[in-house]
Write a structure and sequence with these properties.
- The structure is a homodimer of 301-residue chains.
- Chain A is an alpha/beta fold.
- Chain A has one domain: UDP-N-acetylmuramoyl-L-alanine:D-glutamate ligase (3-Layer(aba) Sandwich), CATH 3.40.1190.20.
- In chain A, 39% of the residues lie in helices and 25% in strands.
- In chain A, strand 11 and strand 12 form a beta hairpin.
- In chain A, helix 7 packs across helix 8.
- The longest helix of chain A has 18 residues.
- Chain A is globular.
- Chain A starts with a strand and ends with a helix.
- The relative contact order of chain A is 0.15.
- Chains A and B meet through helix 8, strand 13, helix 10 and helix 12 of A and helix 8, strand 13, helix 10 and helix 12 of B.
Chain lengths: 301, 301
């Protein structure tokens, strides 16, 4: 089954304690689409400026990602610039310029509309809703969120939550949105707001899945070196929706969702091993499956 | 097989955002011994002052913990006082008074010396070494450490590491002692210093086990309410050694050690559900096994 990934495509400038890269491929939808492409046919929906390099579009094309839903608008591509501190778990946004994203109104192609799984990547909830409204009914809707919108667009987020099947959110955002310091309570509260399932991402500490009376929790893959964690959460969400699409099932059970989280974890670990989407681009199915099985051996008891 | 637990027995004063308790039973050896007592015969080794309440000794006696190795010295019992902040993950030590612990020289009974498993709970590494030297050869030695000694007694700790089988250490201490920001690297480096196995405790984020080319990682048990996390790490270590003792095996494999970590995780979760050792004292084998199996269902995929 085909999955659409809708959200920001960006040019990132990333500085770590050891290295700096300018104008690399970034944006949550880019990471998620590339990650998902190892599992299922992917259609990318978003906007770039006229300055967007052709070689970045080739990255998508080479992975057979359908980019008919990627609009080129007059102006500059969305830009994000960030800096990581010594432990690589802390970062600051140095600069952000929405550029062509500001006036963008998502328009889905007929093929986009017919996708059976949709990932609404990190963007303004109003735009996530615009994508959602164009989809044919019955698609599995997964949405990712971020604190920027939790603070400024709570009503639109609540509206979105009522219409999606699975929310992916990070630890700090979950506590902020659910107004509790306890993460388990936060997961349950977010489920009560609409989605059948809630996934809380905890970065290097793993992820949790909340269902109806069901719960799954996992660690992260052990990495001895993290070169650039940018996009790890997006690669996680991409692996998750990609794996779910690959199952070609009308009805997913809790075990399917648990395994999708482990595949997301595996894809996030690859993502951290290089700058931008470099490591994600060059994977093989064997490498992904091998890490999945290695991960299982690390966590079974 | 019998396990000895050697270390501080204390009177704690604990303040959380909602409650304060004075002079409750505390000390890392108390928590660990009570936790271990659900799995195997336990012998406690330590010192108390003449002010130590008889009802606290009865707690040990009621759980059939052998306290012949607990010396009563002239003076006051070791006291610790701490305060937790709103999220219960941060605490500060308000006051600490070593009292009778300062001049204490551990002396093991013949029965103590014959134990096949020993937990050297959090105390000065010189005292951990004194206990270790009195044990009959061939016992499995597990030691717990804390940052106080990492900073001030590095040489003694290195000496200890060369003589133990398993080191239990928390996340921050592991990074500090191994001088790296990467926890996986820290685990490997600590193993290189002597112990066959290293366990890194991550509190609410679980624990990791490092062996010779082997690795196990697990999350924590999901708690919606944490009343008092004091002693959680000690209850973890107690469950770990208790379970290992219960196996009555001459040679432990990596799976045994992985399961011991899960039992430690389960005991730590009970510990957090009440002040002091209150919850730990009233458990049944069924409750422990039930939570172990519940935990397995939460983490299997």
């Amino acid at each position: 089954m085909s999955v659409i990934v809708a959200g920001p495509i960006a040019l990132d400038t990333i500085e770590t304690p050891t290295e700096k890269r300018d104008n690399v491929l970034g944006g949550s939808a880019s990471y998620a689409a590339i990650s998902a492409s190892y599992f299922a046919p992917v259609q990318l929906v978003g906007v770039v400026g006229t300055d967007f390099p052709g070689e970045h579009l080739d990255i998508f094309r080479n992975l057979e990602i359908d980019i008919h839903g990627v609009e080129t608008a007059e102006g500059e591509t969305f830009r994000w610039s960030g800096r990581y501190f010594d432990d690589m778990n802390q970062r600051e946004t140095v600069d952000i310029a929405l550029n062509v994203v500001a006036a963008y109104e998502p328009k889905l192609t007929p093929s986009n509309k017919a996708a059976r799984v949709a990932l609404l990547a990190n963007m303004a909830p109003q735009k996530q809703l615009q994508v959602l409204e164009q989809l044919e009914s019955g698609a599995l809707i997964v949405a990712d969120s971020m604190d920027l919108w939790i603070n400024s667009e709570r009503e639109a987020l609540l509206d979105l939550l009522r219409q999606i099947d699975l929310l992916v959110i990070n630890e700090g955002e979950a506590k902020l949105f659910a107004q509790t310091r306890n993460l388990i309570t936060a997961g349950h509260r977010l489920r009560d707001l609409g989605p059948d399932h809630v996934v809380i991402k905890k970065g290097e500490h793993g992820a949790m899945l909340f269902g109806n009376g069901q719960f799954f929790s996992t660690v992260a893959y052990p990495l001895t070196e993290v070169l650039d964690p940018t996009g790890a959460g997006d690669s996680f969400a991409g692996g998750l929706v990609g794996y779910l699409s690959s199952l070609k099932k009308d009805s997913l059970d809790f075990g399917d969702l648990s395994r999708s989280i482990v595949y997301g974890t595996v894809m996030a670990s690859f993502n951290c091993e290089s700058f931008s989407t470099d490591r994600l681009q060059g994977l093989t199915q064997e490498q992904i499956d091998s890490r999945f099985h290695e991960f299982r051996s690390y966590t079974a008891f």
